[in-house]
Write a structure and sequence with these properties.
By secondary structure, the protein is α+β, with helices and mostly antiparallel strands. It has two helices and five strands.
Length: 177
């Protein structure tokens, strides 16, 4: 009887030694995944905010007096950055304002007109002129905003990074002439 109890205690100790690291790994992994999903939701909201503003500002037809492309794009980028600052465990890499040629709206630097900014909002390149942002029906331009960021798990349990991006495309607000 005494020997049976010792065996059961030993078995329970071995089971505990195996299950605690597994449960800890699952707990930390689920926390990391939850934080990543939260950052992805925030990034989606940031791109929607930027695309909505880009669609409203549009091109030269609505700006009276006419605004410069640089000031319009900086306004869009500042709105994206204001929302994206809530992404706690991610580092912003790039913000693109573009006119998608593909029907699914995916950004393609080889074919799309775009203005590119770094994660701080500093302009890197500009080849999406304000004159290319048409607002007169039926040829309104689609304007997309894409945010690229690097996610690093907050627990430190996993030492990897993931490069992610999110984009939103909207038609410019029509101006009737």
């Amino acid at each position: 009887m005494f020997r049976s109890r010792q065996r059961q205690r030993g078995q329970a100790l071995v089971e505990l030694a195996i299950s605690v690291p597994v449960l800890l790994w699952l707990l930390l992994g689920s926390f990391d995944a939850t934080v990543m999903v939260s950052d992805k939701v925030i990034a989606g909201y940031a791109t929607r905010q930027g695309a909505r503003l880009a669609a409203e500002i549009g091109g030269s037809e609505t700006n009276n007096p006419p605004a410069s492309q640089v000031s319009i794009d900086q306004n869009i980028v500042q709105n994206v950055l204001a929302v994206a600052r809530a992404m706690n465990y991610s580092t912003l890499q790039e913000i693109d304002i573009y006119a998608p040629r593909a029907t699914n709206g995916v950004f393609n630097p080889g074919t799309d007109l775009y203005s590119q900014f770094d994660g701080n909002g500093t302009q890197i390149s500009s080849n999406f002129p304000i004159t290319a942002r048409e607002q007169i029906p039926p040829n309104e331009t689609s304007i997309g905003v894409r945010l690229t960021w690097v996610y690093r798990p907050p627990t430190g349990f996993a030492t990897f990074t993931i490069l992610l991006n999110e984009f939103t495309v909207m038609k410019t607000a029509p101006v009737l002439v």
